[in-house]
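Dear colleague,

Following up on yesterday's call, I've attached the two folding results inline so they're easy to grep. Please treat them as preliminary; we haven't cross-checked anything against experimental data yet. The first protein's sequence and structure tokens come first.
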Amino acid sequence: MSTIVSTSAVTGASSSTYVTASGSSTLDTAALISAAVVAKMQAAYRIDSEVATLKDKVSAYEEMQSDLQAIIDAADDLTSNSDTSVFSTLEAYLSSSAISDPTDVLGVTVGSDAELGIYQVVVSQIAMAEKIVGNEQTSSTTALGKEGTFTLQLAGHTQVSIDVTSGMSLSDVVKAVNNQSASSGVTATLVKTSDSGYTVMLAGSDTGKSITLADSSGTVLSDLGFLDGDAIAQAAQNAILTIDGQTVTSSSNDIENVLSGVSLSLYADTAGKTITLEVGQNLSGIESGITTLIDAYNTYRKFAVLNQTTDDNGAVDGAYLFGDNVLRNANAEISDALRKSVTVDGTTYRLADLGITYDESNYLEVDTDTLNDFLTQHPDVVEALFSQSATAANTDVLVTGTAGSMDSGTYTVNLSFTGGAVSGATITDSLGKTTDLTIVDGIIKGADGTDYEGLRLIYTGTTTESSLSTTLTVKGGLADAVTRSLDGYANTSDGLIQKRIDSIDDTITDQEDKRDLIASNASDYEAYLVKYYAKIEAAMEKSASALALVKALFKLNNSSSS
């Protein structure tokens, strides 16, 4: 009889059953079928290898895309147009030649609408809450034996009535006052004044406001000493300070927008001593933004180095983009952007002047001492180097926004007027190409999708002329150059890398379809061979059985003849 042997198909399909003869047959049909199918699958195996290589390349492109996007994000924070620009974030700096730590006296909060400036601040007095103290009592829990009603109110709050019965103690009176403190603005505190003495302190919840209290029936307040002439332990007072000689009075120690976008918190008076308040750029934020860009570049640099490394056998393992022109061109774009310079007051500056240089492996490194010194002494140069700036020769044309895609150089802006208002505008580059600008609510803007997107101009003057022409000078913009040059590579919608990824993905899909067809055909061939060899095995088995029968009969005849 035949033996059924189960063998896994090499095509990736489900297992097939092969029939192999037992007994006299020495034919290994399983091996024959396997060898035949493997031969059919060779093209599929080559596709598997190709697809694996393509997938490695896609992963490499995705890593490159992510690394470049990280550089763009970091650079964007160093541009002038970004909502998160580190150059538009301001910080308060306090100093004093007479006060060791000015922050013990003054706290400063700087908002987004603050302006750069330096101010001299003297705090004459801080705001105080009024406090009224009653006479000392011998017990806080013994019934006072007093009856009556008194009223209580902090200025700006609601007057309340406190009812006192003869069985109430000093502690009970405190509770009764505090039960209505949310309305009255007055809180009561039990104070132990001696080993056997207690009193109650009434305090306003707000500074600079007086407490009004009176007995409306009975003499509870009078008897407890709250109406005595010396009961006011601390009178309410306003905060008083001067800023550049201008007196400021506030009922609160927290003074919002005392300067445009600047709020102060007063902790103590300065005893006539002066604190210098400087509202300036957030230098630590700028330094952090620069180091973030450097770190992002170095991460990409590590990737680029790996994909350009060779050994005796060619490209090293993991160098899936070796010799790739997209990688090579992106490297050149970054290198060109980082070589940008800016000229300020006749002096040209580059990254190296800020302490940012290349090491022997072309990774960026920063001398933090040099960078900090430069930020402190020349913050305008740092901003000019990284962030694009533009100025108009005509001072009536105010530049309120720049376009990061504009090259450094000079441009001609032409304005048309109707009835004294701007009615049309164009801009012409150094090559003579003229582009229309749009006008929205009096603001002259670069149109979306053009090289001038982000450019914003405002005409602040008055004129009876029909037209005006002025020169626009654009400078610097290392960070703008980085974002502009790399977006064409890293953009996930239509960047060069994404196009490569999409193309490879399409190729992978096509190859996998071919592979599946080859495997399907091999599987069909496998099924055919199983049936084919099964018939052969069955025929061989039948022949063997017949032969065995003949031999048996022959042997029987021989035995009978003898």
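Below is the second protein, in the same order (sequence, then structure):
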Amino acid sequence: MATMLPEPSRLAAPSALALAALALLLGSAPAWAQQGRGPATSAAPGTAAATVRELQLAPQEAASEEELIRQQYRPWNLQLGLDATVTATSNSAYTSNMDGSSDTLLVLSPWVRVTGMGPRLRLNGEFQLDAVKYTRETQSDRVLPQGALNGNLMVVENWLGVDGALMAQQTRSDPFFAQGEGPSTSGKYTTTHARLSPYLERELNADWTALARTEVSRTRFDADDDALADRASAHGLHHQVRLSRRPTPFGGLVEAHYEKSGYVGEPTSELTQKRGRALLSYALHRQLVISGIGGREATRTAFTDRTDSFGGGQVDWQPNVRTHLLATLEHHFFGPAWELSLSHRGPTYAGLLSMQRELTTSANSLGILPFGASLKGLLGSIMTTRYPNEVERDGVVQDMLRERGLSGSEGLSQDLYALAVQVRQALSARMALMGPRDTMVLFLDVIKYTPEAWANDPLVSLSIDANLQRIAELQYSHRMTRLTSLDAALRWARTTTPGSDRSTTETSLRAGINSRLSPQTTATLGLRHQLLNVNTSSEDPKETALYLGLGHRF
């Protein structure tokens, strides 16, 4: 929900920095990567951008009807691979220097990737298992799953469908703890998230569309470290019914939402929201639509039950298939809520600026990618014109990440495990430049969690669940030859508790070389150094590690 800026005292500086960096990089991108510029083709078939703006495309950008049909479906593809890594580390736990001890880690990672898009079934994803062995037994050995699988089944064409997703990743036990790079079992949980969403969607005519959707989700936590406490599973339920009309020039929608989230066996963590919402839209022209918003909502927690009205507005601007701005601002009883997304892409660059403020619980966001686009999604948007088919494009990007040594991890901002109802405020900037030899990616994140006293137990202190995270990461890859590339990454993260002096600052630097030994085999050699500064500790943990990897795709 959108246009209004976050608190100036906390997020104004990062906002200005993100906007300036976005303008600078995108403005210089064409000159920086002009050697890699190729002929444009078309937007991804089947997307709203491709449909609505088909008449605006230049002749060289518009694909023929036969080509679109050919691109619509791809044969099923199953790929198997095996990665092996040996890492010599000076501090396997990456805790304090006194407790840390050197060790050699052996990691064996079989992985599988499945892609396919047929008339009714679409499936896309990759999963791997990291079998971690500590040769000196300084930490517990574990098998750590990670990956994501997304699918869609069209049961009845243009009527009944089912979306589903399964995701697994390692998350740190506390936002103030060390994050660390590479597979590790110290201070982390394996978070597994499953989602199932059946829906009914029907185009009643050229202007009217009806939608009814139910989404059920479950998130489970398994401790990778024997010293960690057990965590309750999170659950989520979301119902939505909507009737919408395309603005010609007047349009809009009416919708009803029911949403409930919390942790199993923890009633104080539950948040239930019921919302009726109406949107009246007017198209100033084909690329710009403005809307007024009004509605009623009921909010229930273990300590509060209230009903309120809300209102606001929305701007939707899409001047072409490469640029899109969507900004929504609403005023609720807990203050303003906003959501803003500004994206722009070209054949050699892409950028995204996002802002958000909402009332939520941590159980409602666990298992979802951290706010903002992933690295895979960002590079995929650059390659949209070259690979219009989404499934094929995803495989190409995944291979690029492996060959160029780029980290596809989405674990920048960290999910917060808390039993309190919170206001979540976030700012995210993503920028990528990709030429024939060089690839550069910049991530900037600012995310703030503020527990709401009116919605929580008045006898429990909420300061422990409040935190502000600032993260910046820069990744760079350079292809020296057709088979060899260099990569480097610099990451800085700082987590603080507003109103107190508790803070943690982490800095990490990684550099490596990747060489393709054969069309299916890649070797990696790298060095990393990490430093953690904790203001409540007398000693700053640090780690230096040398790693050697070999990957083979069958």
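For the second protein, one point worth flagging: The chain has one domain: 8-223+233-553.

Best wishes,
A.L.
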